[in-house]
Amino acid sequence: KHTALGRFHHENAAMGLTNDGRVVVYMGDDKRDACVYKFISTGKYVAGRKQANSALLTEGTLYAANMSKGTWVALTIDAVREAAKGDAELLATFQTQADVLVHAHEAAVLLGATPTDRPEDVEISPYDKTVFIAHTNNANHGNIHGHITRFIEDGDDLGALSFDFEIFACGGRQSGFSAPDNLTFDSEGNLWTVTDISSSSLNKGVFESFQNNGVFVIPSI
């Protein structure tokens, strides 16, 4: 287990390098009202170390995205305990950095990270290093068909602690897809997404027009 990456509903892990050679791992938390995370290693990647580079995933900082401010919030025990002052129950829960990692969602929300709509697959574009996130849906907020979000890290550096973002594509009748789930890129820079309408909803109600799940291609550059 790579505890430093945090405990939550990991759909995937998208790995890249900062401009100065540290390892970055982007992750979603597959549930409603969940956050988007990234881990930045303390050490730097060395190609000659081969599989030994996996040790880089044991030490670093876990961040969660505050989308209203465009910042990555560090999930540290000091920050969590400062935010929890006066709340005996929270202070009892968060006593060590391990507690922060085990209760990553609770720590992220406490520190101001943004709850989102089931962030499942996260992928880094191999063409411009922007980060794509499949937000599958969230009926709690009326986002029935989901959307794909694109993060643009400051300075095109995956190690940046600030970012801008856009809603890259919205699910619904206008786009022809609903519930984007898995993502990947082809050699021409197109983003491919596989949809994941639940089998109990296919061809029913507001999902009738989509008929089946499918694979969709969207130009990204």
DSSP helical segment count: 4
The class by helix and strand makeup works out as mainly beta
Residue windows where pLDDT falls under 50 for at least 5 positions: none
The number of strands is: 14
Global geometry = globular
What's the arrangement of strands in the largest beta sheet? Answer: 1-2-4-5-6
CA distance, first residue to last residue: 36 Å
Largest sheet: 5 strands, antiparallel
Q: What is the averaged pLDDT score?
A: 97
Topology pattern, helix = H, strand = E: EEEEEEHHHHEEEEEEEE
Strand content: 35-45%
Percent of residues in helices: 10-25%
The radius of gyration is: 18 Å
Structure description:
With 221 residues, the protein is mainly beta. The chain has helices at residues 77-83, 88-93, 97-102, 104-110, and strands spanning 10-17, 22-29, 32-34, 36-44, 60-66, 71-74, 116-117, 119-124, 131-135, 147-153, 163-170, 180-185, 190-195, 215-219. The protein is 12% helix and 38% strand. The protein has a five-stranded antiparallel beta sheet, with no helix packed on it.
List the helices and strands and how they pair.
Layout: E1 10-17, E2 22-29, E3 32-34, E4 36-44, E5 60-66, E6 71-74, H1 77-83, H2 88-93, H3 97-102, H4 104-110, E7 116-117, E8 119-124, E9 131-135, E10 147-153, E11 163-170, E12 180-185, E13 190-195, E14 215-219
